[in-house]
Amino acid sequence: MKSPHLLLAGAAAAALFTISMPAHAQLATPETAPAPIPMPAEDPRMAMIQQQLEQLESQGASATELMLIETMAYYQLGMSEQAAEKIGEVKAAIPELEKTDGENSENARAARAIVIMSEAQTAWDNDDLTKAQDLIGQAFMQMPEIAVGIGGQWVNDYWQSKMMENLAVPTDQPLGIVSEEGKTVTLADLAKGSKAVYLDFWASWCAPCMQAMPELKARAAEYSAKGIVFGAVNLEDQAAAAKVAQDLDIASTKINWLLETDAFALSDLLGIQSIPQVALISPEGKVLWLGHPADPALMQELDQLTQ
After folding, report:
1. Taking the CA of residue 218 as centre, how many other CA atoms within 13 Å lie in the half-sphere pointing to its CB?
2. Is 242 found in the same domain as 189?
3. CA nearest to 270, candidates 261, 259, 281
4. Domain tally for the chain?
5. Using one digit for the tens of pLDDT, what is the confidence trace for 24-52?
6. Are residues 129 and 185 in the same domain?
7. According to the 3-state scheme, what is the secondary structure of 95-115?
8. Does residue 115 share a domain with residue 44?
9. pLDDT tens digits, one per residue of 233-281
């Protein structure tokens, strides 16, 4: 059986498929990626976590290890309500873990690190960065993987929000049109007469991206009539994007099936490090929202835009 910190790291890798790390591509390549799976409209992250937990349980993870991994995943994916419900179990388990496994055991350190990071999140959410930094340091001393796995996204989001304050996306640069190889379209073209452009960044090897496709189609069907233009930006190549378009019958939807070009690496400009990610961009090129497509804040932003 793997040690808990390796299990936690493995769960994190499966939960957040990043563009920059080849190991993630090895987990889900175009040849091995599962076919699109219909996901609950309310939150596809939950099904993703449960799938990972079932896989780890089949590999011999204990109930305690699964509890720790599940709680960490909730924090890591920004699922605050679920994390708050679970953290009490982690706190209650610490004395027994310290007694049976030892105070310096990996399970005990992992549990303490998760609890400390829950306190760090409260401080972070209250804009008390000094206290949050101190608590993140304490959690790092217990188990670095957990401190980075949970807190790393907060730090990335913090600097991303700072960058977005003054970022203007050029609306005259080309994005490839998958259905018409060699032809391009600009954000200005897409945004004409709209309230915003909804861009979903994805890749065929990214299992969470593929699992979220039914929800993307549902949102396009609902919000296209309300002034939101939808585009799915593939980060691979023409062939991969065209195959998925055919498999999902994208031609029958309101989604513009797009491809990044060498001339316009929009995902780099937006600082996107993991996928799936969604950017809402105004017709003037202002970034209105950027984050995970399952984040409830995205739906709130869409509803505000279309009122």
Report:
1. 12
2. yes
3. 281
4. 2
5. 232 333 333 333 333 344 577 788 888 88
6. no
7. HHHHHHCCCCCHHHHHHHHHH
8. yes
9. 999 999 999 999 999 999 999 999 999 988 888 999 888 888 999 999 9
